[in-house]
Amino acid sequence: MAYVSAADDHSHNTPESSTHMRIRLTAGETVLTATLDDNATARDFASLLPLTLQMNDLLEREKYGHLPRSLSPGGTPQFSYEIGNIIYWSPGPDIAIFYDHDGQSIPDPGISILGEIDSGADALKKYDVTIEAID
What we know:
This protein has one helix spanning about 40-45, and strands at about 20-25, 30-35, 55-60, 60-65, 85-90, 95-100, 110-115, 130-135. By secondary structure, it is mainly β. It has one domain: Cyclophilin, CATH 2.40.100.20. The longest helix is centred in the first third of the chain and has 8 residues, at about 40-45.
């Protein structure tokens, strides 16, 4: 089981005060950093924090977790992804973090990019994941 959570005090990282919220992902002993994009969907995701989700593996390329509610739509749906993308898939409604690429495209209705891990996304393959806001 993997968990997604945010720090209890993220007053400096509210969607209203920062256009690009920084987050920390912990996978085993590895600590990764990422940045959420400045779009309506990413801001809505940030509004859910702190959040704890069970994360599952899909197709040996991504970790995904079911959100408690749908997020606001934002931007043009994407049908491709890059390693390190943090995405929202509305039919779930799920978030996913891509740690590998299998060359496949994303089916309709596509995904919304929430942000991106700076580097080291492959560390997510074997570990539970914790995500929290960075002050």
